[in-house]
């Protein structure tokens, strides 16, 4: 029998899942989605606007985030949940539907602080840090960016020299998520043997962290500067199993993967808010959702959300098969964040003046997405990574 198409009268699937992607998820993946979505609706959404306004991170949510198994959730053993990549992506999507700051917290902890210890640490380091990080007892941060080296981190000045059984660390790191709240910092520094990763514990003499104030984006997230002034750390705190830029760049693969999914959460929240608003806001005698120009905006948002969902799901399936290439992550990170920003802007316009307030989540997401566009490789850097992959020519320098 020939394949058939339903009629236009057949009820559509949900407005936030126009391609029935739900069908493509396993039961476990759906359960992760529903659990994290409920947590965001019940615990994050009621408080996040207040935290954004105050410029504070909702630390009170950490125990529950840990309880849900979201910290290092795609790692196995050491108290981690050991879920697949798609589940990790789905969790990031649901968290970022609440706020990019919450997803950032989980990304940094799992992908940027736990992942390097898990992948490149000694067995002693893994035993010492990972279970406490999975349970939320220890918070981690990741220090790669410096004041003069953002997109080009290989130029870093932070350095570590071996003196007896200690490394002496000097330099500074900038824009570090969770910096001042972290119990341990995974810091990348130049050594005689090339770039190495170090675990620096809070309170080590010579290590200070100061918060960056007056951000207009990611306000519900802590961002700090780290300073190392003859900071002596035990030689056993070096990550023994990696040297060179592939150390930090491989961690970025993990975090960028989560961001590609996360951006869709912010996008979905903006789209859903605009859709609901448009159906009830009456102007010229009818709901504004009945005007062609408003429908055009909503139709584009719905289409781009659907495309991003499919792109991300295949990204996750490739990761779970163990054949994901970093350039595929760049394609998804770049596309999804770009489209999320465009959707946020259009959604904001549908709310008119209401769109600029914190009463609705859209402007908060829109401002957050400006950071997401820049961190973990700017949009330009991902364009160049893709360009290099398809032409074979390096256009970075
Ligand atoms: P390049 O010379 O091309 O390569 C150096 C070595 O690294 C390897 N490599 C990778 N390994 C794993 N994954 C990747 N994606 C890799 N890309 C490169 C490469 O094979 C080579 O290995 P080997 O063994 O030959 O030494 O690298 P480069 O130094 O020229 O860098 C290229 C470039 C520009 C793409 C890279 O520097 C880059 O991605 N820049 C952007 C910096 C960035 O994204 N920073 C993010 C900081 S962390 C952050 O923003 C956290 S935000 C908080 C949150 O997530 O919420
Ligand atoms: P620059 O590299 O100075 O770039 C400025 C502009 O020049 C950009 O538009 C860029 O795309 C463009 N540009 C640069 N090079 C090229 C080129 N070759 N061709 C074309 N255009 C180019 N870093 C961490 O290490 N850890 C963290 O936890 C962390 N958290 C962050 C949290 C927030 C809220 C923010 C905003 C940033 C965070 N970062 C973190 C830093 C982030 O990774 C950097 O901001 C980012 O890599 C870009 O670096 P930069 O800001 O120095 O911009």
Question: Tags for this entry?
Answer:
397 residues, alpha+beta, Butyryl-Coa Dehydrogenase, subunit A, domain 1, Butyryl-CoA Dehydrogenase, subunit A, domain 2, Butyryl-CoA Dehydrogenase, subunit A, domain 3, 3-stranded mixed beta sheet, binds 3-thiaglutaryl-CoA
Write a concise synopsis of the structure shown.
The chain has helices at residues 27-54, 62-67, 85-98, 100-120, 123-134, 246-280, 292-321, 326-350, 362-374, 379-391; strands at 76-77, 80-81, 140-143, 159-163, 166-177, 184-191, 194-201, 207-211, 223-234, 282-283, 286-287. The chain has ten helices and eleven strands.
Topology (elements, then pairings):
Layout: H1 27-54, H2 62-67, E1 76-77, E2 80-81, H3 85-98, H4 100-120, H5 123-134, E3 140-143, E4 159-163, E5 166-177, E6 184-191, E7 194-201, E8 207-211, E9 223-234, H6 246-280, E10 282-283, E11 286-287, H7 292-321, H8 326-350, H9 362-374, H10 379-391
Parallel strand pairs: 3-6
Antiparallel strand pairs: 1-2, 4-5, 5-9, 6-7, 8-9, 10-11
The structure holds 3-thiaglutaryl-CoA and flavin-adenine dinucleotide.
Which ligands appear in the coordinates?
3-thiaglutaryl-CoA, flavin-adenine dinucleotide
Q: Helix and strand string, N-terminal first?
A: HHEEHHHEEEEEEEHEEHHHH
- The shape, in one word, is globular
Please state the structural category: alpha+beta
Mean pLDDT: 97
Look up the CATH topology of the largest domain.
Butyryl-CoA Dehydrogenase, subunit A, domain 3
What this model shows, in words?
- By secondary structure, this protein is of the alpha+beta class.
- The protein folds into 3 domains: about 110 residues, Orthogonal Bundle (Butyryl-Coa Dehydrogenase, subunit A, domain 1), CATH 1.10.540.10; about 100 residues, Beta Barrel (Butyryl-CoA Dehydrogenase, subunit A, domain 2), CATH 2.40.110; about 150 residues, Butyryl-CoA Dehydrogenase, subunit A, domain 3 (Up-down Bundle), CATH 1.20.140.10.
- The chain is about 50% helix and about 15% strand.
- The chain contains 10 helices and 11 strands.
- A 4-stranded antiparallel β-sheet has the order 4-5-9-8, with helices on one face.
- Strand 6 and strand 7 form a beta hairpin.
- The protein starts with about 25 loop residues before the first helix and ends in a 6-residue tail after the last helix.
- The model has no long low-confidence stretch (mean pLDDT about 95).
- The site of 3-thiaglutaryl-CoA (TGC) has 26 residues, from helix 4, helix 6 and helix 10.
